[in-house]
Design a protein that fits this description.
- By secondary structure, the protein is mainly alpha-helical.
- Helices cover 81% and strands 5% of the residues.
- A three-stranded antiparallel beta sheet has the order 2-1-5. Strands 3-4 form a two-stranded antiparallel ribbon.
Amino acid sequence: MKYLKGIGLSLATAALLTGAGDIANAQGRRGRGEERRQENQAAREQRQEERQNRRNEQQSEQQQRWEQRRQEQQQNSQERQQRYEQQRQQQQRESQERQQRWEQQRQQQQRNDQQRQEQIRQSREREDRWQQQRQDQIRQSQEREQRWQRDRQQQQQNRDWERQRQQQQQQQQLEQQRRQQEWNRNRDRDRDRNRDNNNWRRGNWEQEQRQRAQRYQQDWQRRQSYLYQRQRLLEQQRRLNQLRYQQRYLERLRRDQLRLQQWRYNDYGPYNYRYRRGSSYYETNRYGAEMLQRAINDGYEEGFYAGQADRQDRYGFNPEEAYAYQDASYGYDAYYVDLNEYQYYFREGFRRGYEDGYYSRSQYGRYSNGGYSILGTILEQILGLQLLN
């Protein structure tokens, strides 16, 4: 019993101690629970504050993000508006450009149509011109054929006239040689005659010179027909400068004929000059020597003008074709010198003057006192004039 009592007491003590300990523990636990509660409350408040802060931060961040998105949206909207405006302006420009291109294409099409019409018109005009040219060529060919026929006839007439002229010259040369020989024989015989016989010879000489002048006048009339034929030929060839020169030469011939009608014969004395023609020498008096000098000088001047005219007409070099060369009678007086002698020296001067005029130079002559004259050295080379005792 005692043992049980002891056990009971021990258990009661143990239970008391345990209860006190439990109470103490419970009080300690309550104290610690309060602390823990307060700590938990503080922690909860802190956590709530932190959560609130985080929510505030999140809200702020969301606000910022929303503001950024709003700004971005606004910026995007502006950019879209700008892009739209740019696209609208681009579309307007493209529309305007398309309109301009269309207008340009329309205008180009109109121009092309006009060009095609112009080309068609030009083609028709070319065709008309070609037809006209072909007709003109046919007409010109016919005219050339006719001119060729006329020229051939004219050339034949010229050749006939030239043969006649050469025959006349040969006859005149033979006549001149015969007369010169006869005159030389008469001169030798007359040296021993008296003064009365000399006067009688002078009368015969005057008669012979008058006959020579009559022959020259007849030959001049025959040359007139050839002159007019040549004038028509120059007109057909359109050699206007040569035609003007020929008319000028013809006018000088007419004035020279008027001068010859008033000229009177004078006795200029015996043959006391000698001149050279080729390898032969001939004699004449003072007046005949002066006439031959004038023939060379006048021939040079006429040749210069004729060559200058052919150069201006761009015609080939051909002095023998000029009428003045073929005529070669300007300045001839028909006294003391035969016509063929005068023409020979006139043509010698003419050829040199023609060469200077055609090539525009002064090799054989010079210009002075309003006219052209041959150099004295050249004249001496051509004529070889010598004074006899």
